[in-house]
Amino acid sequence: MEIACVGGGPASLYFSILMKRQDPSHDIAVYERNPAGSTYGWGVTYWAGLLEKLGEGDPESALAVAENSVRWSDGVAHVGDRTTVHHGDEGFGIGRRRMLDLLAERATSLGVRVEFEHEIAADRLPDADLVIAGDGVNSALRERHADHFGTDIKLGRNTYIWLGTTKIFDSFTFSFVETGHGWIWCYGYGFSEDHSTCVVECSPETWTGLGLDRTSEADGLALLEKLFADLLDGHGLIGRAQVDGSAQWLSFRTLTNRTWHRGNLVLLGDAAHTTHYSIGAGTTLALEDAISLAGALREHPELECALTQYERARRSALLPVQSAARHSAQWYENLPRYIRLPPAQMFALLGQRHSPLLPYIPPQLYYRIDRAAGQLEPLRRFKRWLGPRVARTVQARSRR
Ligand SMILES: Cc1cc2nc3c(=O)[nH]c(=O)nc-3n(C[C@H](O)[C@H](O)[C@H](O)COP(=O)(O)OP(=O)(O)OC[C@H]3O[C@@H](n4cnc5c(N)ncnc54)[C@H](O)[C@@H]3O)c2cc1C
């Protein structure tokens, strides 16, 4: 089979690895418009379940990713001058660039042609049996047929910027700072021995109130360094300015598609769906798409059948994650509802931000129910049963 993968992100690269392992006679090319070793973003998080899945598909990739990741087991929240620590599940972080280098190396060693600085025009697709649109959230391949794919994009209300820092966080760290224009916060996590990620977020009112919409990147970073001085401990923030020197502040785009394939063209990863970064799942989902598509192609020799099967399986697997991501994003958009709770309660509800019930129950009552449910299994089961039903009812009403 001749396969052309457009975009050299985790989705395309891992898919090419799986397909080569399935059948070395496949002729596979991955086209990436950027030069090797240059990519957007800093570190990405994932959880142990991903390593198991990668290990089943390709033990070499799993080992390389594990060996190049950092780990943490605690979560820390700073709200003003109060600090709460939670000992939780083990989390992992890896540099996005490092991960892509590892996957590209592995793909090349299996015989995939990885062509950097090779942009594919949406109206001139490579002549192949299967074309993968792994070209990310702004996929030109998808946009060319947006009507067919039924693309829907919802813009988040808050504004964010994805930054790096030389401060090493050994826990997953949240820091909420109150300014004269409202709260601003960041999520910090390590991803290598010498760098961490810092995603800074705030409401649009705080963003414009602080003048972050008007300053150059350099002045904006200086202001953020001042606001998060306690957290950063003298370390600087590192950005990636646009050509005009402005900072890359964005509103998150939650993207869905009615269908994921058209003839021999199929959407993979962010081109097909996005989930808010506050649940740290986009890369994992992109890799799971690759596993699912490779599996469907193995099971179904007929292409249309395989693509339909892939789409069906992934859409249903994504539903709970998309719900969690939507509620997590809304939690931050409704931050004033939670931020002044006693620290232990605020942190507990931060951990529960994916819950479909939380927006509809007074936070302190929710906290008490959650504590009780932790001790009583029947109540926990009732809460799990009720959550999705409340969310579906409210969504159906808001659509009417
Ligand atoms: C602030 C932020 C924080 C995040 N944190 C996490 C996290 O902690 N954990 C996590 O799992 N996920 C995280 N994500 C999400 C994650 O980055 C994406 O979900 C993931 O990269 C999707 O992979 P992909 O392969 O589908 O697309 P991408 O990684 O976007 O790759 C697409 C590639 O296609 C290339 N391309 C585009 N058009 C063309 C073309 N025409 N020709 C050739 N090449 C092309 C691009 O240059 C790019 O390299 C975060 C996202 C954001 C915005």
UniProtKB/TrEMBL annotation:
| Keywords on record | Monooxygenase, NAD, Oxidoreductase
Q: Which PANTHER family match?
A: 3-(3-HYDROXY-PHENYL)PROPIONATE/3-HYDROXYCINNAMIC ACID HYDROXYLASE, BLR0106 PROTEIN
Question: Is Nucleotidyltransferase a UniProt keyword of this protein?
Answer: no
- Tell me the protein's name: FAD-binding monooxygenase
Instruction: Please name the InterPro entries in this protein's record.
Output: FAD-bd, FAD/NAD-bd_sf, PheA/TfdB_FAD_monoxygenase
GO MF terms listed in the record are: FAD binding; monooxygenase activity
Q: Where is the FAD-binding domain?
A: 127-314
TM annotation in the entry: none
Lineage of the organism? Bacteria, Bacillati, Actinomycetota, Actinomycetes, Kitasatosporales
Q: Record's Gene3D superfamilies?
A: 3.30.9.20, FAD/NAD(P)-binding domain
